[in-house]
Amino acid sequence: MLYIVGLGPGSQQLMTQEAIKTIKKVDTIVGYITYIHLVEDMIKGKKIVTTGMRGEIERSKKAIEIAATGKDVAIISSGDAGIYGMAGLVLEMAAKEDKHVDIKVIPGVTASIAAAAALGAPLMNDFCHISLSDLMTPWDVIKERVDAAAKADFVICLYNPRSKGRPNNLHEALDIILKYKSPDTVVGIGKDVARKREIDKITTIKDLDETEINMTTIVIVGNKNTYVADDRMITPRGYTL
Ligand SMILES: C[S@@+](CC[C@H](N)C(=O)[O-])C[C@H]1O[C@@H](n2cnc3c(N)ncnc32)[C@H](O)[C@@H]1O
User: Is 90 exceeded by the pLDDT of residue 99?
Assistant: First the structure.
């Protein structure tokens, strides 16, 4: 059996019971080394298969091969495995292979949900996820999506917001958002959420310091009604108070 397991954003407190149970019961764990470290204390004595960053295809192939031999194997992903994680790739590869492997996807707490809870309640109305990584999606397509989301006044959760390789993507995305939203729109920043160096910050589009944003950060841009009260970022659901 092949389990595709979302580990949550970092701390074991935010792993689901099912994810913990699965990690403990399987014979083999396949994952990127950083994620293996997150569950180190649960996997003593198990076979560990790891590859470096960008080794997703190799990891998926190995996990499918091991599962096809009859072993129980878990391929691990941060957050939720089905949100910019390993689930889609593993399912696509398995569908193309001749070997029959039973697969179960186990959900995890994705970065936006964990950051939202740390910041307050910014996702109380319609929201969307957009990844600013143009490694696999063309930048023009991403820009169109940012434009459409901002025009429709969604709360926008920006994954992969800024890296050394693409230092300007966030800036460009915010410029597009500013076509429709005010510079005073509330922005929540969750950096290393549920990890040791966690920093959560509430600011506005105009005051956002892009140099503080890196690849372990999620940026949540509010909608027109999002406001701050008692240091919490709140997007009203619409109740009359
Ligand atoms: C390739 S995506 C993986 C998303 C993951 N599958 C999830 O559901 O959270 C990586 C991006 O997720 C966000 N992210 C993942 N873990 C995070 C954390 N603990 N704190 C803040 N952002 C995080 C960042 O935007 C990062 O660039």
Answer: no
Q: Which residue segment(s) compose the domain that 79 sits in?
A: 2-106
150 lines ligand 1 (CB under 6 A): no
Whether 31 lines ligand 1, by a CB cut-off of 6 Å, is: no
87 inside domain: yes
Give the CATH number of the domain where residue 154 resides: 3.30.950.10
The predicted pLDDT at position 186 comes to 98
Task: Report whether residue 32 contacts ligand 1, using a CB cutoff of 6 Å.
Answer: no
- Whether residue 174 is predicted with pLDDT greater than 90 in this model: the reply is yes
Are residues 182 and 203 located together in one domain of the fold? yes
Task: Please indicate whether residue 35, judged by its CB atom, sits closer than 6 Å to ligand 1.
Answer: no
Ligand 1 atom with the smallest distance to the CA of 158 is 25
Confidence check: pLDDT of 226 > 80 = yes
Could you give the residue ranges of the DSSP H alpha helices within 55-192?
A: 56-68, 87-96, 111-119, 139-151, 169-177
pLDDT tier at 100, thresholds 50, 70, 90: confident
Distance of CA 217 from the midpoint of ligand 1 (Å): 7
Considering its fold, how many domains does the chain have in total? Answer: 2
pLDDT digits (tens, 9 = 90+) for 65-91: 999 999 999 999 999 999 999 999 999
Query: SS3 of 195, please?
Result: coil
Model's pTM, two decimal places?
A: 0.96
Measured in angstroms, how far is the CA atom of residue 241 from the centroid of ligand 1? Answer: 35
Which of residues 72, 106, 140 is at a domain's end?
106
In three-state secondary structure terms, 148 is: helix
How far apart are the CA of 239 and the centre of ligand 1, in A? 31
